[in-house]
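Course exercise 7: structure representation. Students receive a sequence record and must write out the corresponding structure in token form. The form below is the worked example handed out in class, using DUF2029 domain-containing protein (416 residues). Read each field label carefully; the graders check that inputs and outputs are placed in the correct fields and that the protein name is recorded exactly as given.

STUDENT ID: A-19
EXERCISE PROTEIN: DUF2029 domain-containing protein
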Amino acid sequence: MKAATPAEPRRAWASGFTLLNDRRFWLAFAFLVTLLGFPRGMLTGWITRTGEVYSTTHPGGGDFIVFWIASRMLLEGHLSGLFDPSQFSRYIIDLYGSDFGVRWLYPPHFLFLLAPLGLFPYLVAYGLFMGGSLAAFLFVAARVWGDRSVALWLLIAPVTALGILIGQTCFIVGALFVAAIYLWDERPILAGILLGLLTVKPQFGVLIPLVLLLERRFLVIAVASVTATALIGASILAFGIEPWRAFLFGLQDPTGAILLSERDAFLSVQMTVYGAARYFGLSFAAAAGLQGMSALFAVGSLVYVTLSSARRDTKAAMLVTATYLTLPYVLYYDLAAPTFVALWLYFGHGRRARPGIAVSALLVGVASISFINGAATTLWHVNVAPVAFLALAVFLIWSVGRETSPGFDRFENARP
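STUDENT ANSWER:
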């Protein structure tokens, strides 16, 4: 029998640690650490604390109070007060003794989705809204992915815990955004309908028309336009023109107060270049200038990637990334779509080769950025969230060169 060389015992010893070489282990480990520690201390402490970002002086769900109150006001015939910040505040104070600093900032046709919630007690409505929207997001993710495995990862992802605890619209936005851009090749009519529905939070579709025009997806554009027009028209028929006038011209003060806020607790959970610059202490003008530069870089990068012959999933990832680099206002619960993109790239979905260690670490960071940013703001008073999106954009630009090179494997160039 051949004697073992000195290298063989080392290989045998290393083989006992194959779990540590499994990217599923490291992703699960990162998500576990996040769930135990985001964003400022142990999770249980975060749930029960009170303050500017989250409050437990009313039943759970944090921001869900906005949607439930909106439904109640609509059903009780107080629609005009919904778009009046002072009346909206008084309505909440009458119920809970404090308005928690929240306001209604959404277009009138969003009320079609929210109207039934006011028929139920707060906690029942909260469960229905969050449970239904999360189920929709997981269904869409599994449909786009091709199997249910991604749903398990999304269930333990930071965005899911944050979305549920805060009671926000992240799952609705994620489902509409992901389904539309990943399915518009095979289901252009459905994609157009979903993009029309995405106008309930229109800022997340800011770059989609550009991509649709560059790729000459005129059917998607037409269906999305018809869907959005129908929703707006239906809301005018149902509620009148006044809510739209108030939405377009009457919410400048609360919107401006959000963008001009100097509260550290608020700026520390913004995921944008503007938010990071303001948190660092820069003036509004300087932060806006940096945000403008970020938007120019994002749009230029998006045009370059879209017009290239790179893989379809690379283009979809660039659209999501560019959107988050363009918007001046994104909070830490608005990360459903970037989390899906990070998982797709991290597992090398539909590809022969998975990313290396450095890129894998970046993608885990993007999927866990709420915790990483929470730790960075706590320890060093630095908002690092936009750095992750900038790095992801650079990686995707680099990927175009690789995917369009003459020696690139044809299998890799095929659409997933």
